[in-house]
Amino acid sequence: MYKILKAGVLAGNIYEMVVEAPRVAARCLPGQFVIVKLDEKAERIPLTICDYDREAGTITIVFQPVGASTTKYTALKAGDSFMDFVGPLGCASDLCSEPVEELKKKKILFVAGGVGTAPVYPQAKWLHEQGISCDVIIGAKTKDLVILEGKMKAVANTYVTTDDGSYGRSGMVTKCIEDLISEGHSYDHCVAIGPMIMMKFCALTTKKLGIHTIVSMNPIMVDGTGMCGACRLIVGDEVKFACVDGPEFDGHLVDFDAAMKRATQYKTEEGRALLRLQEGDTHHGGCGECGGDR
Ligand code: NAD
Ligand code: FES
């Protein structure tokens, strides 16, 4: 069992938990995720790692209640436990495998949208630990939904923007990217993490500006183990699966429209059957309902 040491609301309906998971904490790297399961009958939920403390043996997760399982999680408190807490899963951020001296030459911008601020934090923190500075844009709908601002400011040059202008700069993250450029900032590398629609428009913006961009395709994952086929996406002219090949991909090559349409189709039995027909051998078919695994 994996004991919850701390649980609470971070902002609005965004929740944070610190979980005792020493083996995950010992090995995880920024960009990776965990699969959480509350009990024998519960579904597996993939969640990005927001922070880790190797000495204390803890992992911090941040989530929004969207389905039955994550809604149940909101009632958990310190002292409760998860039955399974599997990880670290997925590939670590490419930044972690680049020589530090090369990274120091790069001007790196992170774009963190809403709950997507959580997986950006360990990347900015990791760079800070290597002595590399970076800029971070935190975007939120409104002042009350800005998360992790203090922690982010401790490790990166942080710009906060709210859609309604109630705090920090005004407007969506894409406007903030363009404003920073027109104020004289320049970037070689961008990592955008947040809702799919945000990542799509960030990629369009940075393509125009000629900034190489990485996005995290966590939102389309279901079981996170390479079995269900939910996270199939097109990157360039290749078929990839976010949970095993990613979750990070070149944002200028991801077909966001297809990924968003597919995520909606995947929710129904009829939709999965149609995907099976259209995708043939690359459907991956472990969803157990479309017949592709038989
Ligand atoms: P949100 O809807 O509040 O959006 C956050 C910010 O994204 C906004 O403030 C805005 O600046 C920007 N944004 C939104 N739409 C945009 C558009 N059309 N153009 C430009 N910028 C835009 O975000 P939320 O409610 O906190 O997000 C929840 C979503 O985040 C969930 O769908 C979840 O799956 C996703 N998420 C993604 C990751 C990941 O790894 N990619 C991690 C955690 C959560
Ligand atoms: Fe199921 Fe990737 S989330 S195959």
Observed structural traits:
Elongation Factor Tu (Ef-tu), domain 3, 29% helix, binds nicotinamide-adenine-dinucleotide, seven-stranded mixed beta sheet, 294 residues, seven-stranded antiparallel beta sheet, 3 domains, binds FE2/S2 (inorganic) cluster, globular, alpha/beta, Rossmann fold
Please describe what this structure looks like.
It is a single chain. This protein has three domains: 2-89, Translation factors (Elongation Factor Tu (Ef-tu), domain 3), CATH 2.40.30.10; 94-215, 3-Layer(aba) Sandwich (Rossmann fold); 217-286, no CATH class. The protein is 29% helix and 29% strand. Helix 6 (173-182) packs parallel to helix 7. A hairpin with a 4-residue loop joins strand 4 (45-53) and strand 5. The two termini are 34 Å apart. It is built from ten helices and 16 strands. It has 294 residues and is α/β, with parallel strands linked by helices. Bound molecules: nicotinamide-adenine-dinucleotide and FE2/S2 (inorganic) cluster.
How would you summarize the topology of this molecule?
Blueprint: E1 2-11, E2 14-20, H1 22-27, E3 33-37, E4 45-53, E5 58-63, H2 68-73, E6 81-82, E7 84-89, H3 100-105, E8 108-113, H4 117-129, E9 135-140, H5 149-153, E10 157-162, E11 169-170, H6 173-182, E12 189-193, H7 196-209, E13 212-216, E14 232-235, E15 238-241, H8 242-245, E16 248-250, H9 256-265, H10 269-279
Parallel strand pairs: 8-9, 8-12, 9-10, 10-11, 12-13
Antiparallel strand pairs: 1-2, 1-6, 2-5, 3-4, 3-7, 4-5, 13-16, 14-15
Helix pairs in contact: 6-7
Bound molecules: nicotinamide-adenine-dinucleotide and FE2/S2 (inorganic) cluster.
